[in-house]
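Morning!

As promised:
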Amino acid sequence: MRNYNLTHLDQLEAEAIFILRETAAQFERPGLLFSGGKDSIVMAHLAQKAFAPAKIPFPFVHVDTGHNFVETIDFRDCFVEKLGIELIVGRVQDSIDRGTAVEETGPDASRNALQSVTLLETIDGESLDACLGGGRRDEEKARAKERFFSHRDAFGQWDPKNQRPELWNLFNGRKSPGENFRVFPLSNWTEMDVWQYAKIEKIELPSLYFAHEREIVERNGSLLAVSEFVIPRENETPTKETVRFRTIGDATCTGAVRSAASTLDEVITEVAASRVTERGSRTDDRRSEAAMEDRKKQGYF
Amino acid sequence: MTEENNYLDMDLLRFTTAGSVDDGKSTLIGRLFHDTKAIFEDQLEAIERSSKKRGDEHVNLALLTDGLKAEREQGITIDVAYRYFATPKRKFIIADTPGHIQYTRNMVTGASTANLALILVDARNGVVEQTRRHTFIADLLGIKHIAVCINKMDLVDYDEKVYADVQQQYRDFASRLENVTDLTFIPISALKGDNVVDRSENMTWFEGPSLLYHLENVYVGSDANHVDARFPVQWVIRPHSDKHHDFRGFAGRVAGGVFKTGDEVTVLPSGFSTKIQKILSGDEEREDAFYPQSVTMLLEDEIDVSRGDMLAKPNNQPRVSQDLDAKVCWFSVTKKLTKGAKFIFRHTTKEAQAIVSEIRYKVDVNSLRKVEEVDHFDMNEIGRICLRVSQPVFHDTYRRNRNTGSFILVDPYTNETLAAGMII
């Protein structure tokens, strides 16, 4: 007899594809938030599968802090060109120049929070009514109550007390003019699921995710890559180490981990044995206990 | 096989938990996470910091499950939270819902996607009103597997008689359940870890498995309907490219049954029949598709098909009607469900309008008695109504198929989701 059981990855894939198609069907102008990180790459891969052999029917949107790893931007540009997709880039620098965002000052200044301003301006300027994000509920506790279809009011705000219940496979994307949605097809995935899926689907990922030699400094418990954005301070001695990244974001706040894992199999083994969450290396989440919740209310991803 | 390759045949179990402040639910989840190594050091450190700040004596594992600042300030859980852990056998998705009476809607939401409900009973108190309410909702939402954890056995000296009495109490009222086919009882102590991950040495009289063993092994594969083939069309793929000039694919997620290449299918509402030419997953061709796979179907004949239509088999078609008899749970704080009220109606991939043509009765979720002659439902009330829909709805009873038997009602003015419905 035919066995009708699906593996957990098959089920997660089917669910994510359903959400991607539902987004295309329920919204006028969705965009896929593409950062060049593994979650957005997996989401883009799923979008390709969802609409094949047609092109993905919506543009990619990158909110660019200007503090990038070179590898990320190269990867992004190659990827988008290969798929033949329109890429919209919202630049935090433009928001700063316009005066709508004010650069943080101080030793640990970061443009991370400013991304929300640029994202909202891009949503407005491009008339996007839904933004697909690679956020997962296992990432951070403020995300555990996030919906697949997350409603945002005209100010882009997330009101955790006023989210629509989601039952079965029925998603309510109706909205008033000016409102929009964030949609998270990978809600039910964990970090491990993303790596395993990348492995079985043979998804190409940026080299930053695999062990390489790099000059780093240790700052506030994170290993930051030395670059034009992270300049060693007086008391810091940069060292050359073999590291890799578990998440890729703004270069000023994304920490590396010491690792020799240079293939997907080795990364999976390492993640399985890890005792720290991937966001544990993000200094942006450590600012306060409710850092993520506060940023989400401001319109963060 | 090495451990890291095990994931290639891991499957998935979705379960829901409900409980109030004192029944040990948070402790149990904390215990499952801790003992399966799903808590990470940085999370543990964060909880330790918070526990200290609050002046708690011990590390309060419940803080792990209190997500939002708004909730921590009020010391309550306001919504369904989704949590994840995995063993080499299975990945688990927990829909963790608060248990107070005013949160019936959250329990309904959490139960709607679950295969199993985990119900906690305090061994000292036995079956209470809340136990009955949780069980009723799990059954109403069509959950077939219930794991009843009789908790705090350490506080009753691990006494087999206490366990047997509580089990009997539960069985007495559970005999009235409609959908539950598998009731499993496990005596545990979430605090001490007895029978949670490993079998307890304090209760050698208990011959059943530990809770985790049960969760890892309970068979849910036959719960889905693999008989009645249903494919609601979600999106039409037309590449408009030279290479795929005539390509028309109907994308969607199988809602029930099995479709194979070459099968004859009927398209609803048009009623035309044709054959399946090809089934695609991405670029790959596959022989068949079944629930819950997302695929793209190509048909042999050129028939007009669009979102909201449904493919079925000529000799096994869904019911088609504009009048529906349904059980609903009302969600709205500000509005009441009344006769004559109009809504947006969402069912599978279809959207229509609906009007309440009759309110038949509501159910008192505590006594489980029917209350007749009611003229409205307030928030968190559950009952039976009749709906008139603006278009024919291709459906099955909820009992037969959760996907084609469920719907939501949406406020046409505020766009809020107001109710969840199950077709009878």
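The mean pLDDT of chain B is 89.

Hope this helps with the figure draft.
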